[in-house]
Design goal:
Order of helices and strands of chain B: HHHHHHHH
Helix content of chain B: over 70%
Radius of gyration of chain A: 22 Å
Largest sheet of chain B: none
Largest interface: A-B, 39 and 23 residues
Number of strands of chain B: 0
Number of strands of chain A: 8
Strand content of chain B: under 5%
Radius of gyration of chain B: 30 Å
Strand order of the largest sheet of chain A: 3-2-1-4-6-5-7-8
Strand content of chain A: 5-15%
Order of helices and strands of chain A: HEHEHEHEHEHEHHHEHHEHHHHHHHH
Structural class of chain A: alpha/beta
Oligomer: heterodimer
Structural class of chain B: mainly alpha
Number of helices of chain A: 19
Chain lengths: ~425, ~240
């Protein structure tokens, strides 16, 4: 209750003051999600009614100024007759709040409002779920909140069943890097759906990051990294399949990659003392019953990816030679001669490329936006190699390949530390 | 003693010495001003050099592409050293002009006033050229990256066009600032800019007829929409 909550709209503060206190807050950030938010709200309502009927829960929809009627849908969506989905009627109805948020437009600002609501209500547990989810079920609420309420965990990261080609930025950069840096194998560090304790929500609010990229797009990795580096108890919950609304096809991959990687690299700067000490990773407990699900097939244009990689090799030498070590650059150049059908980008080389980019970002050897955009052809090269390598592999084998990549990142970590250290006296 | 030759000689010498005596204080003052200029210029050079080193100016120039351009032009000093030395010479030149003013020569006075009136224009032109250079490098690289990532044909050529256009624009603006043949520069710029655009349009329409057709077909017709499809969800 001691936190500054002046960033919250006065109407929301008043409504929360009238409510007084609560046990649970579930936050749903939204922006033009009228098509899907109704389903998400119903699933949350049912989950709270089914698994936590005796607890006082508040649902907060923090909206970024939707123009498609999202807040109205969130306000009006209701299960109606609880008897059709639940065996017992909940003792206390879920209190629902729809509010705009203040600050920079983005998911981070939306979640800050949720943290603020949790802080003012003094809740024991919170969960946040994306508003574009199509596969959310009431069980998700149990899986995200029970480890906090019943097992004393502070942060619950999601575990999804995804297609082997789904989430390639997570699989090839964010997961291996986060695991190697901080020593906690959180499989979906930017999953987007999390559970956390009221204590951790308070801790999030103490950080002054709300004018930075965290407020706009880097909130997911920031929440995960802050929980790990803050020494909070972290676990994972298996939620099943993750299916969400079709993203705008116009969304530029390069911009998306730049946003994600810049967030991870910025956190590396902030937590250098911690990750420098980490030598190995320790397992993260997993909750939930794992099962396999049928997933729709994904069409991948490998030839185009290899074309972009080769174009990068031809044209981006001027940028790459400033960030990649000469032997790494030479190896990258040698890959361009391969036939597309048998194209391979070795995992050890990829780990060195990512570490070289992290060091170059740290040393600001070139404009940071340009640096990260020049990573796109390399990332597509690695993704093409991964797709070809796993074309006949099942889910277990694919996880094995990702595991091998993580080991490469872990064994190459001394290389990162050495190069990072060298930048203090000028880039080597 | 009163013969006309001696009188004239003495008068001439008298006038000469008088002129020398009139000129000497000015000369001494001019020498003193130049000496002062040397000291101040040297001091400023040292201070600016240290400040730029502290601000990691060389690394900044490296990321802007200035260092590479200097290397290409066979300038073998660091940007920091170049900036500090340039400042020294600007300060010395300004003091030299002040020194000339101390001589109180009418023709020189006019030259000096013209110099000091023109100096801001020279500095503004230099600033425009520098900004144009930095911007052309920055935008050319941004264009190159965007073109490569979009798998566009000839990304290098696209980025070169952007670089050239900005360089031409900034050069024309610098000349306009220097007031060198304003009308000719303006006309030359309009003609050059128009010519570049026209030649690009003709090159694209004639040389790249097939490419143009493909681009337009892709925009307005359903030509194998699955060909470039990618369902990959990267996050």
């Amino acid at each position: 209750m001691s936190q500054d909550t002046s960033f919250m709209p006065p109407d929301l503060q008043h409504e929360l003051a009238v409510l007084g206190s609560a046990d649970i807050v579930v936050g749903i950030p939204s922006y033009n999600n009228a098509r899907t938010i109704g389903h998400v709200v119903k699933a949350v309502q049912a989950g709270l009614g089914k698994y936590f009927p005796e607890l006082h829960a508040v649902l907060v929809n923090s909206d970024g100024g939707s123009t498609d009627g999202t807040p109205a849908v969130a306000r009006e969506a209701s299960i109606g007759d609880y008897r059709t989905v639940l065996a017992a009627h909940p003792l206390r109805p879920v209190h629902r709040i729809t509010t705009p948020y203040h600050g920079l437009p983005g998911k981070g600002s939306a979640l800050r409002t949720v943290f603020g609501a949790a802080s003012l209500l003094g809740v024991r547990a919170c969960a946040v779920v994306d508003s574009d989810l199509r596969s959310i079920t009431p069980e998700w609420i149990d899986l995200l909140l029970s480890p906090v309420l019943k097992e004393g965990f502070d942060f619950v990261a999601p575990l999804y069943k995804r297609h082997k080609y789904d989430g390639t930025i997570t699989n090839s950069i964010v997961y291996p890097l986060t695991r190697a840096l901080y020593g906690r194998p959180v499989r979906q560090p930017i999953g987007g759906d999390f559970g956390f304790s009221g204590r951790l929500a308070e801790h999030y609010l103490t950080h002054d990051v709300w004018s930075s990229d965290v407020a706009r797009f880097g909130i997911d990795i920031w929440m995960t990294t802050t929980a790990i580096t803050g020494g909070f108890r972290v676990c994972q919950s298996f939620l099943g399949a993750k299916l969400h609304d079709v993203k705008d096809p116009g969304v530029d991959l390069s911009a998306m990659l730049t946003q994600v990687v810049s967030s991870v690299f910025a956190l590396m700067e902030a937590h250098e003392p911690q990750w420098r000490q980490v030598r190995e990773s320790t397992p993260v407990p997993v909750f939930g019953f794992e099962y396999s699900v049928g997933l729709e097939s994904i069409q991948v244009n490998v030839e185009r990816m290899v074309q972009i990689f080769c174009s990068g090799v031809r044209e981006l030498g001027e940028v790459w030679e400033r960030c990649l070590q000469p032997d790494t650059l030479e190896e990258v150049h040698s890959l361009a001669g391969q036939a597309p059908a048998g194209f391979r980008f070795p995992a050890p080389l990829w780990a060195r490329v990512v570490y070289d980019f992290a060091v170059a970002h740290h040393a600001r050897v070139v404009n940071r936006d340009h640096l990260l955009r020049s990573l796109t052809p390399l990332y597509l090269g690695r993704t093409a190699s991964f797709v070809l390598e796993t074309s006949n592999a099942d889910a277990g084998e694919v996880e094995g390949i990702i595991e091998d990549l993580c080991h490469e990142f872990e064994t190459s970590k001394p290389y990162l530390i050495e190069r990072w250290h060298a930048t203090r006296g000028g880039l080597s | 003693m009163n013969d006309p030759f001696t009188t004239r000689l003495l008068r001439a010498l008298d006038v000469f010495f008088e002129a020398v005596m009139r000129f000497l204080p000015g000369l001494l003052a001019a020498l003193l001003i130049i000496a002062l200029g040397l000291v101040i210029g040297w001091l400023l050079k040292v201070i600016v050099r240290r400040l730029l080193l502290l601000a990691r100016f060389d690394r900044l120039c490296d990321s802007w592409g200035v260092s590479q351009a200097l290397a290409r032009a066979d300038v073998r000093v660091t940007p920091t050293a170049l900036a500090a030395t340039s400042l020294f010479w600007v300060v010395l030149a300004s003091f030299a002009m002040a020194a000339l003013a101390a001589l109180e020569v009418t023709a020189v006075d006019q030259l000096i006033s013209s110099f000091f009136l023109y100096l801001p224009r020279v500095l503004a032109a230099l600033a425009i050229l520098l900004a144009g250079f930095v911007m052309s490098n920055f935008l050319a690289r941004a264009t190159l990256l965007a073109a490569v990532n979009a798998n566009a044909p000839s990304p290098r050529a696209i980025s070169l066009v952007v670089k050239l256009l900005i360089a031409i624009l900034s050069f024309a603006m610098a000349l306009e600032q220097l007031q060198i043949a304003k009308n000719i520069v303006l006309a030359a710029f309009v003609i050059t800019f128009g010519a570049v655009m026209l030649s690009l349009a003709i090159a694209f329409g004639a040389g790249g007829r097939d490419v143009a057709r493909r681009v337009l077909e892709r925009q307005f017709k359903d030509v194998d929409p699955d060909k470039d499809r990618d369902d990959l969800s990267h996050l």
